Amino acid sequence: MIRVVSAQIRPGMTLAEHIYNEAGVVQLHAGTVLNESAAARLTEAGCGAIAVEDSRAEDVAVVHSIPREVMTRGRGLLREFREHVRVAGEAEGVRVPFDDLLALVRAIEESLEAAGQNTIEVSPLTMADEFDYIVPVNAATVSMFVAAKAGLVRRTHDVGLGALLCNIGTALTDDPAKHPEMSLKVLRQDQRFSAYSKAIVYQHEERHDGSGYPRGLAGNDVEPLARIVAVADMYCSLIAEGNQMGQRLSPQEAFDFVTSAAGFEFERTTVLGVMQYVAPYPVGTMVRLNTGERGVVTRVYKGLTTRPTLRVLYDANGAEAAQPYDVVLAAPENQTVLVAQACDL
After folding, report:
1. 120 lies in the same domain as 200
2. Which residue range forms the structural domain that includes residue 10?
3. How many domains is the chain partitioned into structurally?
4. Do 142 and 36 share a structural domain?
5. CA gap 62, 65 in Å, rounded
6. How far apart are CA 4 and CA 124, in angstroms?
7. What DSSP state is assigned to residue 58?
8. Are residues 136 and 255 in the same domain?
9. C-alpha angle with apex 77: 72 to 83, nearest 5 degrees?
10. Which pLDDT score is estimated for 240?
11. What is the pLDDT of residue 41?
12. Sites in the chain below the pLDDT cut of 50
């Protein structure tokens, strides 16, 4: 299987996985050969990345960190809740769907356990109007994965709930500096939220060097779980269309942006603890090497996520390889070979 983003979808491609609509119902089944109409609908919908069949990568299994139906469910839940908060106009009296949010967190947790991966992928977002719904689910997924790997299993639900709602306050204010306080007020409408979840939504914009908000906390004054969510939220936001940077960064650019902030905006060990698991180029992604060769990522390694193994399908001149071959970027002999960028099939 090979991943293609919405802009690369073409008629004639065969789906390697189901496509779900916003209600979580299968819209197109795996094995469907896309005609012009179906390809156009998927492209216009900004469906993110989908997996398509390719005989050269039959043994490449694209495993999503969380299934599409869970992502779709989360998107719908957050869209509905955010609209409820916006219409209410204030936090007081807001009806928080705590049970539904907790069920979503548990579904994410179960999906991560079932996938059994050593790295985590982030679902791409190509439509700006989905930013407020998909980014929180992505950030929650990454944060929960990292917390579990760090041995904080008892806190994963708190982390997930905090990450899902850390930006819900933006539905009540256009002032970025005020949204953590607004988010906290929303959580206070339901006593079942833990102190950890509340600390996450209130402190996720604080920075290690004291440059954050709302209180300008620095160093160890910032709750450790909030530090994890801060890094995850930043990365997931940077690769999403509609972010505050004004343009969507590539996974590698976002990876470099976050890691370069280690020791400054973000506490160094937290950045390393999170980013060692984040795969800028998940299995199935087509990439171009600095040698000019193009291929599909077949394996990603913890701690070396920017140096995957890939199967080269096209040589440096752009010609299809008569016999595809694997290149292990983590091998000593390939230290000068780098992933230049994700590319088209």
Report:
1. yes
2. 2-53
3. 3
4. no
5. 10
6. 11
7. T
8. yes
9. 125
10. 83
11. 85
12. none
